[in-house]
Amino acid sequence: MTAFRHAGIFLAVTLFAACSLVNAPDPVKGGGEGGEDGEGGSGSGPPSPCGNGLYQTGEECDDGNDVETDNCLSTCKKAKCGDGFVWAGVEGCDDGNMVNDDGCTIDCKLSTCGDGTIQDGEDCDDGNADDTDNCTSACKVASCGDGFVHAGIEACDDGNADDTDACRQGCIAATCGDGFVQVGVEECDDQNMSDTDACAGACKNAICGDGYVRAGVEECDDGNLVGGDGCGAGCTLDNLLPQCMSYITLNTPDRNIGYVDPATRDCDDGMNGSWYRFMGAAGTQMATSPPPENVCATHAPGWVQGAYPAAQGQVVNATVCFNWSGNPCEWSAATQIAHCGSYYVFQLPPAPACSLRYCGTN
Fold it and tell me: Is there a single domain that holds both residue 213 and residue 230?
């Protein structure tokens, strides 16, 4: 009887222990029998502790630390751009928002000039380091005086407002005739291209012997200070032939036989039989052999057929021929040539046709 009672007690204890194991709380889900909210379970068991290093239900990660700069936050959430924590070695910044122009971009990179996004303190940002477009590499809108030449807009930009250097205010390249004296380059600049005033030629101060007759000051100027050639050392007229005292100057570069322009075709049909002198870029006299066609800014260039006068004061008759279509004298005009010492003057009638021109040579 005693043995039977002991056996009953042992069985009861065994059954209680087994029942206790069945209804023990789940370490993950909590609660008792039936799981999370099943029968016999309240669902109010203690939550799994984030940071214990064990991946539990409801956690994205658990690296067992509270460091916010690695790939798993202290909330057991995976690190990502926009969470407000800077992921070391991966993100340059993280301000917890998806705003692109507040210093930290939406892909968690620190904003810099040249990233293509306009930030505080930037006038512009075109995403490149080109200083010749409308946004400089300093993220400033291009402007005259910034030291960078804005392509297609500015001729120059030296970063200053000095009108006496090679780049004037307004980013305009300095030129002779702009009214500003470029230091070390020009002696004067009177804002015109007249060669008869105090500032002549390539912005040089007018002097006797420069080849330009200064109105009201010089009677003549043949480019030298030698007397006996029609113009004396003091730029006064020598006693020579009348035609050597009064003549019209031909001095443009396009009148020289070395000038070639495929588009321009001028004609000397406006000549009136006056006396003319070739000077400067035009040359010093007319050629004595046929120049090529289409030079001297015309179709048929003129040249002298005959001898020049040999002595000062001598005047000779000659013929001007015009070279065209394989004929060196397709047209011709009678002329006179006067020897004025160091130069010649030519009596030139209107050209017999167009486009014909009297041409000079050196």
Answer: yes
